[in-house]
Amino acid sequence: MDVTVLMENSTPSSRLAARHGLSLWLEMADGRRVLFDMGPNEAFLANAHVLGVDVASADLAVLSHGHYDHGGGLPAFLDACAATGRSVPVYVREHAFEGHVSGTLAHHHDIGLDPALASDPRVRVVGERCDLGGGLTLFSTARRAHPIARSNARLLMRGVDGSLAPDAFAHEQSLLVEEGDRRILVSGCSHGGILNLMDAAEELTGAPLDAVVAGFHLMDPSGGTVEDAEATRALARELAARPTRYFTFHCTGTDAFALLRDTLGDRVTYLHVGSRATI
User: Fold this and answer.
1) Hey, how many other C-beta atoms are within 10 angstroms of the C-beta on 202?
2) What is the rounded average pLDDT of the residues 172-177?
3) d(Cα 183, Cα 159) in Å, to the nearest integer?
């Protein structure tokens, strides 16, 4: 599988735009193309053009969860496909278009998606598991055997009556890619905890993962905080105990990445806008 980063928080190139968000272009060994997340707005389309990626040629798209920094560019993607006469299915998890909020009960702001998009016929709502065929599986998990990052405590769900409650991340899904004898996990922010997602993916595939392409949510940009250093080091030790390579970005943050690299060395790589990796 080849990965091209269309949107991320940073870029070394003056020709590419960086925004807080994520968009990945995945090219499978069998030729299929998947757009995984669409960043916060249409800027990922301009980056794709510079990088020689035709997003309208995607065979399918995946929205990892219902936050604007991953799905704010969804309308632009749908328009880009429509302009070429193509109708590309976009797979979203149940609850993705419900109210999502960042902050505290007293001080918060909306970070959700336009709920009108839920009725678009190209948007396909799926449950806890969806077999996309050809070794691609979307899955969700409620397991929490391993702790999740403390920054998740600032993420809330808004009820129909306007009340707020902690987000259980039932709107999050990840992609498991099985190509030959290789198994790859792709996740947006890993709000459910990267180790919990890895456990669920390994249970599905029946073998350890060869690679993980994911944000680890070790920083909270709106709260201006990062995960406790010792908690990050503990996570690094857990990751190092598995026979896996890691490609990370976005919500991991560069401070946490430096700590992860202290333990994982060249087994962990940070991907910026414009990065390409063969996995």
Assistant:
1) 17
2) 98
3) 37
